[in-house]
Amino acid sequence: MKKSQFSYHLPEHLIAQAPLPQRSASRLLHLEGASGRLEDRLFRELPDLLRPGDLLVFNDTRVIPARFHGRKDTGGAVELMLERLAAPHLAWVQARASKPLRPGGEVILAAGVSVRVREREGDLFLLESPPDRDWPALMAAHGEVPLPPYIARQPEAADLERYQTVYARRPGAVAAPTAGLHFDEALLATLAEHGVAQASVTLHVGAGTFQPVRVEDIREHHMHAEYLEVPPATVAAVAAARRRGGRVVAVGTTSLRALEAAAADGELRPYAGETRLFIYPGYRFRVVDALITNFHLPESTLLMLVCAFAGQTQTLAAYAHAVAREYRFFSYGDAMFVTPERASLGAERG
To answer: Where does residue 326 fall: left (phi above 0), alpha (psi -120 to 50 degrees), or beta otherwise?
Structure first.
């Protein structure tokens, strides 16, 4: 399967550069995967698409101030994006500089704080902070909100709140689980009154989510590892939804990947650890029955996931529809409610 099969034309002016004043005011494109039928809606109308007894599964990760600016000990400017913590004083980072960082070298951050390059692994560098400053302290003092690279502006004060879901609880992500940005407290309350249950997983989104697929044969692509937890309470909530005939609705591709990774042996179980799960057409879904997601970059692993879920032809037709009707794209953009091309194995088992 070729990367070029997941391309589409996106006019630059459709890339949302800022959030709407109200979270739930976004548009919502309903794609019925089995038929390809499309319906234009507003996100606040989501309760109309859900049924009493359905289960929404949210990713409760919290975005950390993971971007740093500094200079190499040789003088060149460098921008760091923290990928994940290996220990309080050790962090894997992506580095943007004129020349790659070298093991044994140093990067000087704001206020003269020096961090040492320990090793390199692919696109990532392991940096060690000084004994008196661990990475959480450095983030609190000098880190910036890590807005995605396609948002062509500097972070603003409003981004501290809006590039975060209202239910974010567990710090660790360097990118927001953006499908959740459309939910506000009022909508969550309405859904609860509607009889829609709620549960949470944690998947700390890494900066690798923005990395392009660099191979034409997508089966040769290797995902960055991301940490996730699926707690026993969520496993129980999924089982309860099955018993009452409800659907498991993943809020975002991260929630979907967390649930599917925890069901890798065929049955959903509590899980804590890393995943490199790469979902593309041909994957058979084990847990998730519907998906709420934003619009994703051309040729990205996230678009491939949606194509696997709803069908490649149907998904790309929906994207063409969204472009023609000038939906807003990517992190601060509009959303989709997607049902699958074929039922999940969990739904078939009842």
So the answer is: left
Which residues lie across from 91 on neighbouring strands? 85, 127
229 shares a domain with 190: yes
CA angle 223–229–234, rounded 5-degree value: 125
- 167 plus 270 within the same structural domain: yes
Could you tell me how far CA 14 lies from the centroid of its own chain? 20
DSSP 302-350: HHHHHHHHH-HHHHHHHHHHHHHTT--BSTTS-EEEEE-SS--HHHHH-
Res 16 pLDDT > 80: yes
Q: pTM here?
A: 0.93
Cβ-contact 50, 249 below 8 angstroms: yes
pLDDT at 84: 86
- Give the count of alpha carbons within 13 A of 73, CB side only: 12
Q: Domain span at residue 254?
A: 3-63+160-349
- Condensed to tens digits (0 to 9), the pLDDT of residues 268-318 reads 999 999 999 999 999 999 999 999 999 999 999 999 999 999 999 999 999
Whether the Cβ atoms of residue 116 and residue 84 lie closer than 8 Å to each other:
no
Residue indicated by tokens 């041909």: 282
Residue 153 lies in a domain: no
Q: Are residues 91 and 35 in the same domain?
A: no
Bridge partners, residue 15, by sequence: 329
Same domain, 293 and 191: yes
Separation in Å, CA 225 to CA 41, 81, 125, 189, 220: 35, 15, 14, 34, 16
The total number of structural domains that make up the chain = 2
Residues 123 and 211 in one domain: no
